Amino acid sequence: IYDPTSAGNEVASGRLAATALGELGWDAGRIANVDDMIVATAHHELGDATTDQAVLFAADLAVLAAEPAGYSDYMRNVRREYAHVTDPDWVTGRSAVLRSFLGRAAIYAPELGLGTWEQRARGNLTAELETLRD
Asked: For the whole model, what pTM was predicted?
């Protein structure tokens, strides 16, 4: 479930997955794990993340480590998704998101061995942040 105007996408998606998995006969523990993993993607916090969550976060944030041309496409598409946001509000909000990722000790869990991704993601985020200051 994705609506760029909603703050509850991950919770709604987790509930949808839980319902569907319940209908498939999955046990409650496995369903809760999937729900927790989906809800955790709202913030991608590595501090308390399980290994499964860290892998999911890396997959979810893989685009941040794309080659520059791919990252440029991603940037344009994200702006289109948020076309309902005024330019000044976009710059403020997007800058805050970029700074929050850049301010982390790690974007990808170090134990996953994604050092190349980490470096490329930081370069992409930094370059995007510079474009917002122009």
From this structure: 0.86
